[in-house]
Amino acid sequence: MELRQLKYFIEVARVEHMTQASENLHVAQSAVSRQITKLEEELGIKLFDRIGRNMQLTAVGQDFLRQAKIGLQELQKAQAIVEEYADPTIGEIRIGLPNSIATKVLPAVISAFREKYPQITYRFMEGSNRDLKQMLVTGALDVTFLSPVPEEDDEIMPHRFFDEKLKLIVPSGHRLAGKHSVALADLADEKFILYPQDFDLYHLVEDTARMKGIELETIFQSRDFHTIQGLVGAGLGISILPEMILDGAIFKETRSIALMDQELRRSVGIITTKRRNMSPSEKLFRDFLLGYFEEGK
Q: What is the largest CA-CA distance in the chain?
């Protein structure tokens, strides 16, 4: 069985016409007919019923078509892998990212990377740190941004790029709106709107407050920082968010304020998996990121 035979078979099954299939494939009709016949002889089964000029799949032909499509996809993936190793500048990279850094870090990085490697393509997936790490380990992602960056373990290799401060965001009419900076202790009686508990950012804020003997009252939680800002702007509470996503994205109904507590900062970087070797295009992207951020600075 040949790759060509599968391609011809799938196209004939799709259009149910030998002539039309040959035109779509840019191949002589006799060549398509010959390969279909060879395939049926090799399998020892009839895949099509010839009804006039039309080709209709038999029952077993329908079953074979489903598997043939899967087989062809896998063969094409294998071919793409080989082609990528021959030329790493034409691969695809599956990138994970928390939504708290998606709007600021990624556009600049991808824009700079595309200038050097315009033929590499990307697939992006968002999620919590826990979700993204799991997708990386199971092979659904090739590399993922994370914040904060976890410690190295048996499964992952971390690369920290920089640290980022967290900032307070309050309604524009709030008692603290005119302040240049505040301490977490000043917020003990406030109502908070934070990310959900499966986000590391939630635990960073909660743990810092608890360490200082403060119990935060969280009244709303959202995965989307625009939603959080909207709720704050409506006067429903205050929040603590990364400086990066607030830069240039403050709603007119809100004010951002620096926090004095040095613990309220997070690291930003990527992790890669130790479970498999990286493809050439993935290595290109990782090495580009290390140079772009000058790792550790």
A: 84
Task: Based on the fold, state whether residues 74 and 106 are members of the same structural domain.
Answer: no
Whether residues 76 and 221 share a domain: the answer is no
Count structural domains, the chain: 3
Question: Same structural domain for residues 53 and 137?
Answer: no
- Looking at the fold, whether 136 and 206 belong to one and the same domain comes out as no
Can you spell out the DSSP letters for 76-109?
HHHHHHHHHHH-GGG-EEEEEE-HHHHTTHHHHH
CATH number for 137: 3.40.190.10
* Whether 142 contacts 224, CB under 8 Å: no
Q: Which two tokens stand for residue 135?
A: 């997708």
Q: Which residues form the domain of 111?
A: 89-161+267-293
Q: What is the pLDDT along the chain (297 residues), one digit of tens a residue?
A: 788 888 999 999 999 999 999 999 999 999 999 999 999 999 999 999 988 878 999 999 999 998 988 888 778 777 767 766 667 787 889 999 887 776 677 888 999 999 999 989 999 998 888 899 999 998 889 999 998 999 999 999 999 999 999 999 999 999 999 999 999 999 999 999 999 998 888 999 999 999 999 999 999 999 888 899 899 999 999 999 988 877 656 667 899 999 999 999 999 999 999 988 888 889 999 999 999 988 544
Q: 108 and 23, same structural domain?
A: no
The tokens describing 291, both together, are 């140079």
Cα of 242 vs its chain's centroid, Å: 20
User: What DSSP letter does each residue of 58-77 carry, written as one string?
Assistant: -HHHHHHHHHHHHHHHHHHH
Cβ atoms of residues 286 and 143 within 8 Å: yes
8-state DSSP, 187: G
The whole-model pTM stands at 0.65
